[in-house]
Amino acid sequence: MTETVSGPGAAGAEGRSGAAGLTLTPVFSTPGVHPYDEITWERRDVVQTNWKTGATVFEQRGVEFPDFWSVNASTIVTSKYFRGALGTDAREWSLKQLVDRVVKTYVAAGVEHGYFADEAAAQVFEHELTWLLVHQYFSFNSPVWFNVGTSSPQQVSACFILSVDDSMDSILNWYKEEGFIFKGGSGAGLNLSRIRSSKELLSSGGTASGPVSFMRGADASAGTIKSGGATRRAAKMVVLDVDHPDIEEFVATKAREEDKIRALRDAGFDMDLGGDDITSVQYQNANNSVRVSDEFMRAVEDGTEFGLRARQTGEVIETVDARELFHKIAKAAWECADPGLQYDDTINDWHTNPETGRITASNPCSEYMSLDNSSCNLASLNLLKFLKDDDTFDADLFAKAVEIIITAMDISICFADFPTEPIGETTRNYRQLGIGYANLGALLMAMGLGYDSDGGRAMAGTITSLMTGTSYRRSAELAAIVGPYNGYARNAEAHQRVMRKHQAANDAVRTMHSNDTAVHRLATKEWAKVVELGKVNGFRNAQASVLAPTGTIGFMMDCDTTGIEPDFSLVKFKKLVGGGSMQIVNQTIPRALKKLGYQPEQVEAIVDYIAEHGHVVDAPGLRQEHYEVFDTAMGARSLKPMGHVRMMAAAQPFLSGAISKTVNLPESATVEEIEDVYLQSWKLGLKATAIYRDNCKVGQPLSDGGGKAKKDAADAAEAAEAAEVVEKVVEKIVYAPTRKRLPKSRVSRTTSFTVGGAEGYMTSGAHEDGELGEIFLKLGKQGSTLAGVMDAFSIAVSIGLQYGVPLETYVSKFTNLRFEPAGLTDDPDVRMSQSIMDYIFRRLALDYLPFDERAGLGIYSAEERQRHLETGSYEPVEETGSAAELLEAPTVEITPLPEVAVESKAPSAEAGAKPAPKEAHTSAELLEKITGTAVDSPLCFTCGTKMRPAGSCYVCEGCGSTSGCS
Fold it and tell me: CA–CA distance from 626 to each of 592, 596, 940 (Å)?
């Protein structure tokens, strides 16, 4: 199945403006069958509740969704994207209505503007786009779902960049334009560096106010609009160049306000995010970034002076120590997470339109970087959908999806409305697009690749390269049909130069395995076509790709991970169709374990361990070299800061824009570590970097779980201090263990076993209370070295048991030891063993340890595993007695219990599924409950639950609300 451009020069280098439209062949949809007719649809009731207050915040019953859509996805789409007044016939009630409203608008505009060769091509485009959306292969950004096909203005862009000059008219216009954008639920960014500093004179002879003073007014405006009706904070980015004379004041603004928050909090004021008194604090509605140059960064490396320049004349009016200023930037970020850095020379070196103007700013999340007074509409692909059954990435299918999506995104500019005319004019002239992806973290895990590994980075880089290369190739093909963007002619040489830079970066990728080699091979072909076609046709779009946070739309696609982020945690909170909730292990984990070569019994044990502990450290049977595959953003195996930076660096050379992502650091991180993150980000070619140190901000309300965790930590510290005092008092008392010898006649059992073809015998003896007291192992011929070693080992373990060493300690230490012989056993309870020691102590655990202790170690009998498959629980119906009682107990007949009807779907199909704790309502709160550690995130204004990081902001799993990014 192929997709071509018909007419003269179709899909080739000889294509030219004015060629006939696209001729499409179905790739995803079935010819002659509407995508809806291939899906099983079901009706659901959507009810959203604020978990803190108990109030119902949204309710719509009888909505229609595909049966494979999760409850969470259907809830968020119904509450966020369905249009029309609730309770009226005008209200949308089916996903079909929503998708048709958007898709048919796109198709009609494509037909009107000559994108398709004929009506048949338009219908194929409609079916392909519909299929991709309803099967959750991709999603447009939220404004498309809000506005397209409604009576509202057809705004499709989520990202805006404004401009402000050194005049009161321009400054006041900035306030007004920003207000309109905030009112529509979007965010904007701008650079204030044109405004004269407080160290320069006005024409009247007075001193200028400086940009920081004008930031106060804009911040108050944003806060007022937020409190005037929006359910989330206004999203904005404020940028200042590092050579601006007011740079030190700018750097310190939010850090000083954080000191104020602490002082007011200690005085008894309510300074939580959303608290009654937080509005008295300034600069809290914006992300701040310093725009640094290569000149400044080299001065930091060299330890030299750096000049701050007047805004109008460009002369140096003050010099500063570059390292000292850099330290102040890092210290402020350490204190309050602001400012981030944007690397000006890197950004503009990859700029396709330098003849029109420099790139001076970004949108609030730093992924969109383009001309002033411009906008970008976004769409993101769900990468996990392109992973085939054999765990290889389907590069060809991915490229086909990109072709369809990028075409639709370009069509949207033909009918889109914009908040201001300057923004509309620039966007129509340069047609900036922002295709991206989500679920990278889940994809890498499912493929058995560590996020912070060479293999993981190679896979991410090649996929990003293929995505952007395919996008620009399609952009060149569209230029042959409907013409290049209006600003292309004056920027043609620069645009083609950037395409060659992308191509060179692709050539520099070093693949690690056959899978990324196949993706890279296709990406190489695409970039060759881009360069070739672009010389003849030009390009339809000034930019093609970014990596956005994908907060709300990530939930719409049922993604485990957002944007370029790693998995948040290995254990997830899941709502059930029939009501209630479950605690499940991330469904990519069993797939990853299978890919890594683990047997079903081992996978089951590891998944159960993760369900219990929330991490993989010491998971039974899991090799340490595989731990990195399961590293997450939070928890016991959280990624190191540079792991985030290196992944961003792998994708950055293949993006038109940048990446929305925050580098997370532990609370213990130092200012010097933040300096290193910023410096290495510049050296690795990133366009922007933002950091967040845990608990650096006061105005971040923590859930009860987090508060409890901190209280428990304080209690533990007090207890430790008390214990230390007691220890000093009784330091002369010496503990002397006593040996508990076995009786002359004791109950014992002998077990014959085979491990990987090696045969042996184990005899175990127990005390009168059934507690294990000795073992004897027979391996090899009597008198052989192996037999002697086994005798010595048996004596050592037996004496340890009699002196009080718990059997559980031996089991935890000796299980999962890996050496030959290993493999299949003849024991139905332990089918696979990594060594003879692994088998022996699993067998002893099954014979002598109570169920609860074995369950904590992930050791179950065959009967218990079967019970789990049938009932979802390993636990036996009745308590078992001691080992001695089991040996003497007569056989009894057990009458099966009557079946009990269950309303909701059985969770046993989910790996590691069990009822979620009542205190948890999101994955963030579940992680806190399991690990006892706090997740440093704000609470959702809508449903009161703890949000989780998504790119440079936060997103709520319960209702899809975000803390700033659309």
Answer: 10, 8, 35
DSSP state string for 773-809: EEEEEE-SSTTSHHHHHHHHHHHHHHHHHHTT--HHH
Domains, the chain, with CATH or none: 3-156+363-552 (no CATH), 163-360+662-693 (3.20.70.20), 568-638+906-934 (no CATH), 748-883 (no CATH)
Q: What is the DSSP letter of 66?
A: E
Write the DSSP symbol of residue 41: E
**Cα–Cα distance list, 801 to 390, 700, 738 (Å):** 48, 50, 11
Residues comprising the chain, all counted: 966
- Alpha-carbon distance of 959 to 966, in angstroms, equals 14
Maximum Cα interatomic distance, the chain, rounded to a whole number of Å: 108
pTM: 0.76
Res 880: pLDDT: 42
Strand 287-292, strand 830-833: pairing:
unpaired
- Spot the catalytic one: 257, 335, 367, 673: 367
The whole-angstrom separation of Cα 220 and Cα 279 is: 9
The DSSP letter of residue 659 is B
Catalytic entry in 159, 336, 365, 953: 365
Distance CA 362, CA 644 (A): 21
What integer pLDDT is reported at residue 274 of this predicted model? 60
Counting Cβ atoms within 10 Å, is residue 908 exposed (0-12), middle (13-18) or buried (19+)?
middle
Print burial letters for 296-319: b (CB count within 10 Å at least 16), e (below 16). bbebbeeeeebbbbbbeeeeeeee
Cis peptide before 850 (omega within 30 of 0): no
Q: Which of 749, 752, 750 minimizes the C-alpha distance to 827?
A: 752
Instruction: Name residue 15's amino acid.
Output: G
Cβ burial, residue 293 (10 Å; 0-12/13-18/19+): middle
Query: Could you report the per-residue pLDDT of 64-94, keeping only the tens digit for each?
Result: 999 999 988 999 899 999 999 999 999 999 9
How many whole angstroms separate alpha carbon 712 and alpha carbon 350?
50
Q: Which of 306, 293, 292, 315 is nearest to 200 (CA)?
A: 315
Candidate ranges 68-77, 183-192, 430-439; pick with highest mean pLDDT: 430-439
CA distance 178 to 364: 12
Report yes or no: 144 and 377 within 8 Å, Cβ to Cβ: yes
Query: What gap in Å lies between CA 390 and CA 382, rounded to an integer?
Result: 18
Q: List phi, psi (to 5°) of 444.
A: -65, -40
Active site residue 365: yes
State how far the Cα of 769 lies from the Cα of 777, in Å rounded to an integer.
23
**Among 154, 591, 608, which residue's Cα sits nearest to residue 384?**
591
Q: Which residues neighbour 588 within 8 Å (Cβ) at sequence distance 6 or greater?
A: 384, 442, 445, 446, 560, 567
Which among 72, 363, 377, 382 is annotated as catalytic? Answer: 363
Supply the pLDDT for residue 903: 34
> Which tokens hold the place of 116?
């398709």
In the residue annotation, 367 being an active-site residue is answered as yes
What are the DSSP E strand ranges found in 390-542? 433-438
| Alpha-helix residue ranges (DSSP H) falling in 393-453 | 395-415, 421-430, 440-446
At 696, is the pLDDT very low, low, confident or very high (cuts 50, 70, 90)?
confident
DSSP structural state of residue 942: T
Read off the amino acid at residue 843.
R
Give first-to-last CA distance, the chain, whole Å.
35
Q: Measured between alpha carbons, how far is 385 from 45 in angstroms, rounded to an integer?
A: 27
Give me the mean pLDDT over the 361-388 stretch: 96
Residue 610 Cα distances to 498, 623, 908, angstroms: 46, 14, 16
